[in-house]
Amino acid sequence: MKTADKHSKIIRAATKVFAKKGFFNARISDIAKEAKVADGTIYLYFNNKYDMLLSVFEEKIGKLVEQINTHLEKEEDPRRMLEIFIANHLREMKKNRNLAEVIQIELRQTNKMIKDYRNNKFSEYLDIISTIIKRGQAGNVFRQDVLPGIAKRAIFGAMNEVARIWNINIDSEYKVEEIESQVIKIFLIGILEHPEKSD
Amino acid sequence: MKTADKHSKIIRAATKVFAKKGFFNARISDIAKEAKVADGTIYLYFNNKYDMLLSVFEEKIGKLVEQINTHLEKEEDPRRMLEIFIANHLREMKKNRNLAEVIQIELRQTNKMIKDYRNNKFSEYLDIISTIIKRGQAGNVFRQDVLPGIAKRAIFGAMNEVARIWNINIDSEYKVEEIESQVIKIFLIGILEHPEKSD
DNA sequence: CCACAAAATGAATGCTCATTCATTCGATTA
DNA sequence: TAATCGAATGAATGAGCATTCATTTTGTGG
Fold first, then answer.
1. Which of A3, A103, A147, B179 is the most buried if burial means most Cβ atoms within 10 Å?
2. Which nucleotide's C1' sits nearest to the alpha carbon of A27?
3. CATH code for the domain in which residue A137 is found
4. Which pLDDT score is estimated for B118?
5. pLDDT of residue B22 exceeding 60
């Protein structure tokens, strides 16, 4: 087996184990077993346990970034772009529960670390949202008084929390499409029945 | 010192240490030192480490529930109620960073546990949001097609993620009032400039 | 002031892993 | 076939830390 294969085999195993047990309860030996590899082998590919988590996270988010960039490539309308982003994110989370878990874990884990890691994939991912918003504001599609730096977080946070529905079985009666359209609508037009009366 | 005092002294210390180090990196001895108490004393008040985290969480969220219920008591307008909820949550998170951290930690921690813990304070807290929404729908203030069970999560998730701004110093140029009004507006009227063109 | 109980202490225990590294494997080359 | 060397192995190490509990301190009622 080639080196690259083994590396990604370990990443896959780690994702699964981290997702299932959380970072601190995951044993290196669990991951090794899952990857069908000796414990020591893992240290040929990663410096330490935390390095694995970082790698897993960067790789997964990196894929999300690529994927969404591809989807957005030909789209011009900021509104559609936002819809695509939200739909894509939610579908991925639903499809791959481990991914959703790992994002949560790493997000908590890194919290204090993230300061040092400027150029990381995660900020890149978040910034896609704010870029869309700025673009929409330039085209007068989105309100000018929305702060893109806040909105990107609000949107990401909402999606993330909503996606947890699929990881805890409660409320699992909701379908992806339903949730998707809910989130999109809420962010586009809000929840007021008569928004014209606002401000 | 009376028992009740010591109990809450430990809770306070635990909140601080959990917030600073995270659950798994927090040592019982750290908490004991912070509370100016012997390691063993902690076990007179809590069954084990995880029990402490649960207690901390329940107590903190419990206070939030009480607080927000008081604030909402005399309010009749669902729209105002939602505004009050959001403002209150964000202000508390800003005021007490440890609280924000601990919520995150416990949220991750419990993820799988929470299934077993139906009647917990956290669901109670979330349900205040959905109750407000249902009320607004009954009064035709909020759109009928909003699913309260989804919206409550979206709102909570957004607030939580936005509140992280204060825990990682980046972007700390934002003021509470600014963020408050952003989040409220986004959820009430969305980000579209011309929402009437929707659907 | 004493006797007793309750509360508090913190050193000792014992277990759990992350990490290391001496050894083995297996592919390649001559 | 033998020599070489990078990759892989997994048992052994040792540090870290939650929890326990024998002992001490504090509080109370007579």
1. B179
2. C17
3. 1.10.357.10
4. 43
5. yes
